[in-house]
Amino acid sequence: MSQHYPTLLVTVPLLAAFIISAAGWINKRLCFPFAVATLTVAAYSCVGLLFRVLHEGVVHYRLGGWPPPWGIAYYVDQLNGLVLSVISVSALINLIASKRSIEREFPEKIGPFYTLYVLFVTGMLGITVTGDAFNLYVLLEIGSLTGYALIAMGDKDRAPLASLNYLYMGTIGACFYLLGVGYLYIVTGSLNMVDIASILPGLYQSKAVMTAFIICMVGMWIKMAFFPLHGWLPNAYTFAPSASSSLIAPLMTKVMIYVMIRFILTVFTPKFAFSTLAVSDSVVWLAVIAIVMGAIFALAQRDLKKMLTYIIVAEVGYMVGGAWLGNRAGMTGAILHIVNDALMTLCAFLVVGNIVYKVKGYSFEDLKGLFSKMPFTMGAFVIGALSIIGVPPTCGFFSKWYLISGAIQASHYGFVVALLFSSLVNVVLFFRIIEIGYYEPFGDHHGHDHHPEPMAEAPLSMLVPLFIVAAGLVLVGLYTGDIVNHIIQFVIPKGLL
Amino acid sequence: MLAVLVSLLVTPILVSSRASNVREGWTFVAATAKFLIVLSMLPTILKGTEIVYTVVEFLPGAAIKFRVDALGMLFAIVSSSLWIVTSAYSIGYMRGLKEHSQTRYFCFFAFALSSTIGVAFSANLLTLYLFYEMLSLATYPLVTHHQDLEARSSGRKYLLYIMGTSIGLALPAMLICYNLAGTLEFSKQGFLAGTASKPLLGLLLFMLIFGFAKAAIMPLHAWLPAAMVAPTPVSALLHAVAVVKVGVFSVVRVLTGVFGTNLLLSLDFSPFIIFVASVTILVGSFIALTQDNLKRLLAFSTIAQLSYIVLGVGLLSPKGMIGGIVHIAMHAFGKITLFFCAGAIFVATGKKNISEMIGIGRRMPVTMAAFFIAALSITGVPPCGGFLSKWYLVLGSLEAHQIAILVVLLFSSLLNACYFMPIVYKAFFCRPEEAMFKNTVQEAPLFCVVPLVVTALISIILLFYPQPFFRLASMMVHSITGT
Question: Model ipTM?
């Protein structure tokens, strides 16, 4: 059984999606248990796979026993295992947390929603596990198309337009990627990543290979909302239903970062990406702009959810910049930040979900008095905020530590300043929210007769998952050393200092 | 290492207990337990051994790690003993004024104390930074306890200064240090020697000294007077003892453990530190002269006194360092008494301004007597403990051949007397028709008065029995200088 984990974690959710869809016709209440069971199996196989990789090293798996380059082959290394675990676990947690809000927001569409949900997770897991560049495109489209649908189910007036905009941009991005893969296929005659990697070394001076690399990168940047290609993200994530935004926001961008790192490290070589092309410095400067602009746009927002979406834009800048610094510390920081940012974003969006569930709004006006109304949700929010700001011992601090370290080693002080600037802006952003929730509405002078609003906390089924994520932020922070020493260290090639 | 955890563990109990007596009972249990744990380590430390405990190592040379040494011990004793006293005082104050959200208050108080002890026992810059940030965040709800507009603007200022500098200056400096030296572990002669050029080291020193803005070195002092909107026990413990002393303690650690005295001497950075500290002492004292709000006056006095400690260590002479380090303790006991008195006056009469306190001594003799003693201690006059630390500072300045510093110290003492003595004088000596208080005004509740009497008495006792603190301070200095 355990040797089939790599394929189970894609095929099980894929088939289950159809079963859930069918179950929705019979009885809507069947959908949720089915979806939970599916994602539990997926999460179990992902974590199991991660442990197997940790003990045995890289796992090779041939679908149907066909040898590459003709058959579909999976090479699962530590990086795959790590990202897979993050995806499946956070999708599972979010599924449980958002049951109530799904039932409230669109009771008539429960069946389709869970189907799309599971299909989306299938796409994300597939992208991460596959070792085939074209396969990756197919799974990317599965993930994206379901993503568009999940987003369009939100706000009746604005979500469809936001989703359409995302669809246009996302399709362009995917086309770019496909075009790049096409070039690679023309040059190498192969679509298997490891196979391509073995053929490419003699061809690095070829214009076609360089073009392929750059086009692929641009496609990924659109998909991950790297500034200035981020235009689709804020509206899409803001107007999506709570359950979709807390699913898509933590995963989609992070998975694309993973693909980018996979291309740099495995399909191509770091030497090619950072030295031969000689664009890494410019990309890091682009990341600097992304971070600064993300922070500034976030400052300009007047509602919580949209503010968070711009923070994601800035965080994408962190990871792209870290990966392109071209040294070990920066790459470690970027990979670590995939995990951390997924958890942080999940935490923040789950909080938004709880707030929307109780208050039915997420503009700054709606947040007044929340600390007395929903103390537990806001407690988790503070932990998430601290992690995004980068306060130890939460995990956000440690990835920022590696990123800044990498920037110092690369003597890229613009990136150092951008990271610090973004941390400071995050302090302002989050304490502005905390101030609104904590002080307003103002009582009389000393607050002696301040009658706080009675507590109206979200149901336990939403709070417990939120607390698990919040605790995870601290635990991942404390175990950073282990994650780096046992997982990330093996991912980065030895040549990269 | 339980010392850090005890007060952290008690927080959930505090949250769960609804009855106020139970809650405060647990606070006392935690405070006493913490103090006893700290004391139980004292004999080991006095023997010269250090206790080391690593929690988790996430980078070589940068772990979350505790090490108890003489300097940390001294600071831990001061802050954990004063937590007990302050808890008693808090009960009197908070109940006397019927404040809201008392549970939150006691929780974050416990949390803040955990972080303080964490700072005291940090073995490296990273752990210190971690607890330093935890302390900033734990004290934010305490400072802004009243939740009104004034509290919000002060809270903003507090965060802006404290977190702005720690993220903007201390964090990058720490990272640069790590990249230069490959370690962040405090060591006897620092770990930066021979790693970088003089301008870079100068920049790092600048970033680290100002990065720990809790030390309130000018021009980064403005948060401290603003933070006086907090309830008085918070001001007392956190803004005379824990928070500001954590800042100074961090600066002392940076000077001794990161740079090391030999490096500072060879690079001739001492004048810079001395200059900054002297300016802060003088300007702080002058501003204190102009204040009418008693708590603000005390805040500016604190700013000036903190720089005594920085000055003492910055002199880099053994006696100066001993004086500076002992001043952590002496100033803590004196200043906390003064804050307790200000709070007691507020509880009993509702007055905050000095000009409205004429004749107060006749109605609240015990409080004002304690105020007088503490003021003497801060000024540095016998029979109070403050005299000893100032004495050593003066000796240290002579030892370092800094006559200008001697003048600064003596002139500042004069200024201290100028702003404290009129308050005491007006409190007791006035014509009956001048007195502003009716006979109905009485001493504050017993929970308020007893703690301030205790701390005032300790200030006196410290003159005659200062050995524990001096032993610790000189152990610290000897371990550095090797004599």
Answer: 0.82
